[in-house]
Design goal:
0% strand; 7 helices; disordered C terminus; mainly alpha; 67% helix
Length: 199
């Protein structure tokens, strides 16, 4: 029992690390997009100039305060819900489905498979900071394919053993949900923000 509980350190800490890395890298990617959109059009505020520009507007009538970048703290909560939910809630749902088919796989084994499958997304989050859409799409697609193959390779024997008639359908559902996690990672955390430039 103690050995099984020690196995949970990996999935828990991988998911937790991914949660924080995704939130930080997603915010940093947004910051880079903001800086690229801003360019050199707006000078950095001079600390010795007082607050003379705080109430001013530019030629377009936009206040400089509205063009400031802010950290999106909701990314942390969304990331936690996505990855903890995927590993532990979806993993438990899969385990219950396998139990319904009289499967003998342990819940902790399912959680370990799903937790360890997320490992590849940690370095991918750093690659997604690069402000190139092609790099982001390729990184996430390759990581999703590799981790999806890891899940299928580990669950396929059990699924075919307990439900051979529905094995393909179950595997397609697993791959579909996994692809959804990859798309959520790319489209929510690493989408390109559009920032209004001063005219």
């Amino acid at each position: 029992m103690l050995l099984q509980l020690q196995d949970m350190y990996g999935p828990f800490w991988i998911a937790t690390t991914l949660i924080f890395v995704t939130a930080v890298a997603g915010n940093y990617a947004d910051f880079i997009a903001w800086r690229l959109a801003e360019g050199s059009a707006l000078p950095l505020p001079d600390p010795g100039a007082g607050n003379t520009t705080s109430n001013s507007t530019d030629a377009s009538g936009t206040s400089p305060a509205t063009q400031q970048w802010y950290t999106d703290y909701t990314k942390l909560g969304t990331s936690a819900a996505l990855f903890y939910g995927y590993v532990f809630v979806f993993g438990m749902g899969l385990w219950l489905a396998l139990r319904w088919f009289n499967g003998q796989m342990k819940l902790i084994s399912v959680w370990c498979i799903y937790g360890y499958s997320l490992t590849i997304f940690i370095p991918v989050c750093f690659l997604c900071v690069v402000p190139l859409s092609l790099v982001r799409w390729l990184s996430v697609m390759i990581a999703t394919a590799i981790s999806g193959l890891f899940i299928v390779a580990n669950l396929k024997p059990t699924i075919y053993e307990v439900a051979p008639a529905r094995a393909i359908m179950l595997l397609l559902i697993l791959l579909g949900v996994h692809a959804g996690v990859g798309l959520a990672l790319r489209l929510y955390f690493f989408r390109f923000q559009t920032y209004e430039l001063p005219s």
